[in-house]
Amino acid sequence: MSVQELAASPLFAGLDPAYLEKLARIALLKKFERGQTVFAEGDPGNGFYLVQSGRFKIFKLSFDGKEQILHLLGAGEPFGEVAVFTGRSFPAAAEAMEKGGAFFFARDDFVRLIATEPSLAMNMLAVLSMRLKKFAQMIESLSLKEVPGRLATHLLLLSDQQDGAARLRLSITKAQLASLLGTIPETLSRILAKMSREGFIALDGPMITIANREGLAELAMGAIRI
Q: CB within 10 Å: which end of the chain, N or C, has fewer?
């Protein structure tokens, strides 16, 4: 693992290059195929991962096998960090959404480095705090908003992440998007079609164009319903 790859991650931002070199020495690159499990819920939390390439999902399965996606992660983003602080089993599962790689940091090796560089612990806590904030927002959305509101919120977030772009490309399948929003693909398809008919969005295959941003924002806030 290169120092440049480490420095590009928010988890290691601002660390001294000499310390980044120590981190690089304990990182183990693991390759994954599409659909391959990284770890299952309940597996021993023996370390954490940092995405090198590809995309990974963190998810939980209900008793009846329904999947709820918790996080979608790309290059430079960590996952499984809870293991560093607790050493307990992973509270959710992780799977590669496409062919890619992730650097693995064994818990014991990483904890020894944290002891010599407290700023690393602060960086990790900052990342975990942001993830907790996103998770709280997800819980609020799933519990308080109807599916059209959840979808509107997601589309506006995607737009914000792309500098306010109105034309968006879905980077995940509709089945995965449905799982992320806590619904089923059939319901999602009906809502997308209805939002298109009522002029909120325009559909073109994997592309979605926001046609009425103000209306979409009102839908996201629950001010209007469809």
A: C
Name the token pair of 82: 């809870």
In whole angstroms, give the CA distance from residue 6 to residue 26: 12
Closest to 206 in 3D by CA, of 168, 180, 178, 179: 168
Query: Is the pTM for the entire model greater than 0.90?
Result: no
Residue-wise pLDDT tens digits, 114-130: 887 777 777 777 766 77
Distant-in-sequence, close-in-space partners of 168: CB < 8 Å, separation ≥ 6:
155, 158, 159, 162, 207, 208, 209, 210
Rounded Cα distance, 95 and 32, in Å? 9
Domains of the chain as residue ranges with CATH: 3-138 (2.60.120.10), 145-221 (1.10.10.10)
